[in-house]
Predict the structure.
Amino acid sequence: MTENQIPDVVIARLPIYLLKLNQLLRDGQKVVSSAQLSEMIGIPATQIRKDLSWFGGFGKQGSGYDVIHLMDQLKNILNLDRIWQMVVVGAGNLGKAVVEYDGFRQKGFEISAVFDNEPDRIGSRVGHLVVQDVEDLESYIKEHQIYVAALTVPASAAPSVAEKLVKAGVRAILNYAPVRLLMPKNVEISNVDPVLSLQRMTFYLPRK
Amino acid sequence: MTENQIPDVVIARLPIYLLKLNQLLRDGQKVVSSAQLSEMIGIPATQIRKDLSWFGGFGKQGSGYDVIHLMDQLKNILNLDRIWQMVVVGAGNLGKAVVEYDGFRQKGFEISAVFDNEPDRIGSRVGHLVVQDVEDLESYIKEHQIYVAALTVPASAAPSVAEKLVKAGVRAILNYAPVRLLMPKNVEISNVDPVLSLQRMTFYLPRK
């Protein structure tokens, strides 16, 4: 398995499969067909089988996939059989919400530090963390070998902070700022853009 | 054009096309090929052409798409040639961040009210709004014919608030709570799940 061959869009679908498998597991289901996954996700079953075939066979034709086995394999493929430490930069409302969000830890991401540049925020508590001075961001990342960061600063500050993160060694940025960031090829960036979701839904709303 | 025939996954890609076209427009580009869009988005050009062909032809073979014309058409298809009023339920850190986020208005969504059930939050200011009592949520939605809501309450409260929203007439919910909500068929829901983005990126990070 080499990373270069597999299309990004395939990789992007794997976490969705993992999420749905997790739901099935909670419901006590042990085996799932690509047809059922297709129904749950809204992607053709042929696409699901094709996506998974990039990584070898996970099920026999006609007998479906073993839920736990497939989950384990997907976690392994996605590099999720470990906990990733993550830093949050920006301790405003959004940064606080991200730190307090309890969906990260159980899915493999542990927020280990939060940073800001405003004197009245530095030293204050957010969740179980104390806000650190952004001046110490680079040394923290290097010392703790942090690869993952969430960016919750204003759009105007995002490019320079992102540059700092990358310089210090971060390789994956979850960008909440409403701005496009240009990154080197070896750095992954995901933009959290709720507008895209809203604009999908309006298609189904009554027309004037 | 009937809504039932077109796959949801096609509709979900249209806002991404719109976003990229907007970037091209800002850069002063007037015509774009499906090949260039493909490069920008990471979706095959054949897929882009197929998606757009659901809605009739937008360009001549070989001559590319007119950026402004295609944007106008996509906005029309997505029901975005108007401003949608949106309510936010939950005025904690996340709700405040959503209200203060300046990416909504310019993309067609105007937050017109924010609600909470905590006495010390009701009456306080968030951005340019005053937090209203969630008791008044249903009457507000009916009176102002609100179709769109963002749900920023804790997971435990989300199902009952969502039910209220739907009962009052909301048809599209942007759900930030880390919980799956079961909705009637005529209600659209989008879950904002940053974990899916993180789990995509870890694929590309160094392995232990």
